[in-house]
Structure formats: structure tokens, C-alpha cells
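Hello again, I could really use a second opinion on something today. I've been staring at a protein lately and its backbone has me curious. Please have a think about how the structure follows from the sequence. I owe you a coffee for this, so here goes:
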Amino acid sequence: MGAALSLIPELEQVLRHGSCPKRAETLRRVTALFLDGAERYNDAHIELFDDVFGLLIEEIESRARAELARCLAPVDRAPINVIRKLANDDDIVVAGPVLEFAPRLAEHDLVDLAETKGQAHLQAISARPALGEAVTDVLVRRGDGEVARRLVENRGARISETGFSRLVERAEDDDLLAEKIGLRPDIPPQLFDDLLARATAVVHRRLLASARPELKAELGRILQKVSAEVAARIGPRDYRAAQRVVLGMHRAGFLNEAALAAFAAEGKYQETIVALAALSTVPINVAERLMAGERPDTVLILCKAAGIGWPTVKSVIMLRTDGKVPSPQVIDSALADYGRLSASTAQRVVRFWRLRKNTQRS
């Protein structure tokens, strides 16, 4: 520690009369001295360095403060007061390394920072290797979309049930966030159900494509659950007459998109269901249940798998028996989703539903 004491006369001279470049040079020397012996210094020595750092960074350019932050952030025994001061710096270039990496910041420090700082600082906090629920609750509440997505991607971040609930609500308008939440292994089952109920067809597609096998099985289970709930609401229907009509057209070679469009335009619900089932090669009861859902997502998948054009798709999803005609906003969203959904993906999902149905029968 003698080397540090030998700097005291120079330090006093720098603080009284030194320019910014002189302060920066002294700061670099003190930093190097600290890093060289950080493992050996006792608490009194570290407190002395804390005081020295605190004095030197009072009037110094941000580039020098950023350099200090990068040096001290990963050090387990870095002086706590200067670490807190750097973390509170309004310049994210200075604060970022400390917010993201400094182990010296306690949970209460992170909560205070998350409550008061801007979105760039919240992004840095959300990327820390480990985060407790007290911190993530604040990040979910105050953070913007980028903060939420980065937080959800961070497997070292523990998210409370309240946090997940808020994230699922936000994901209704953010497909990318919904996808990232769906891939979290720690999402509570009931909130995973809610997420899938809110998610668009595009998110379903992404989840099916990228999820682990056990998550794909869970997705299939939820879709079956939704279908069962829909079936319970609408009750059984007699499709025998509609089947005779549609199968007769099929045998004659007249069952195509034009026939489906005509059924939907004329308000023939049962004929529309049977025709859609035949064109997308799913059982009638599956098409019925998907058609009766509150959101058009699954109907979009059936129609895309069958190669049906948007005008006919719109007629089909407008055909309701419960009086709940989709709003213009829902129709616009469905059009956008339909354009993004590929035929190959839709066909894979339909095969998935068909396989689930065949497995249940066997």
C-alpha cells in the first residue's frame, strides 16, 4: 500500500490545480494500482481507494469515467461508493458496464436504479447474469418493449408470476415478445395457456418451429383444450345434410374455393364448415371447433393450408353464429397475419392437428 500513499502529494496537487487531462492520467495510475492489488487489500485500503476515486471523477470527462467503469465493473471487491456513482451516471456509456456486470451492486441498488433511470439503463440491467424478482418486477413495469424482450431472453432473470402476467398482457400487441415468453421454461402453466390464447397465428407458427419437443406437445394440448371449450359453448350440430351437399359437389369435381366462398356469402354455416374441412383435410368437428373460436387465428391456418385467397378467407371469418362479428381492427390484423403466414407452415400445423386427432382415436 506504500505506493498508494506516495500518490497522496500528487493527488492533492492534481485536485487543487490539475487540468482534466492531468486528472485522467492520475485516475489511470490509481486504477492500475488498485487492480494490481485488489485481491490483497483489506477493507480500510479499499475505502481509501473509494475516497480517491470519488475525488478524481468529480470533474472529469465521460470518456475517462467510462474507462474506469469498464475496469472496475467485473471486480468483486471494487469500491462500492464509486461503483454506485458510476451506475447512476446519466451517460449510459459510463453506467452500462457497471449496471450489466458489477457484482458489487446489491439488489436494493438495482431496484432503486430501475425505478429512477431511463430505458437505456434498464436495458443494461435486464442483461445482468442474474436478477431477482424484486428487480425484474420493476423492469417489467417500467421498461419498454426492448427491455421486456431482453429480460425475457435472459435465463438468469427470475420473473415472478405477477411479472409473467404483465408480460403476457403486453405480448398481445408484440408477437416477438410473445414468442420469447413462450420459450421460457419457467412460465406458469396457466399463463402459458393465456399466452397461446392471445397469440396470433404467426406466433403459433414460430413456437411450433422453434420450441423443444415437450413445448410442442404442450402447445398441442392447449389447442385441444381451446377446441374443447369452444365445443362446449356451441353444442352439437347435425352436419349430415351439409355433408350430402358438399360430398356430392366433391364427387362431381365442383368443390373448390369458389364453392366455399359461395357458401360463406350465402350465410350457410354448416356447408361452409364441411367445405372448409374437406379443402383443408381435417375432420368436420375440428373445423367446427376452430371456426367457433373467438379469434380467427386457427381459421387462417386452415385456409392458408388449403390455398384459399384472402377475400374468401374474410367471408369465412365473418360468418358467425354467436353474433360476435369481428371488428375492422381484427380483420386488418388477420389480413396482416395471413400475409405473413406461409403455406408450408400452415400445412405443418394442420398435419399436427390431424395427427393429434388420429392419436386420440387410436
In short: Residues 227-361 form one domain. Residues 1-5, 230-235 have pLDDT under 50 and may be disordered. The radius of gyration is 30 Å.
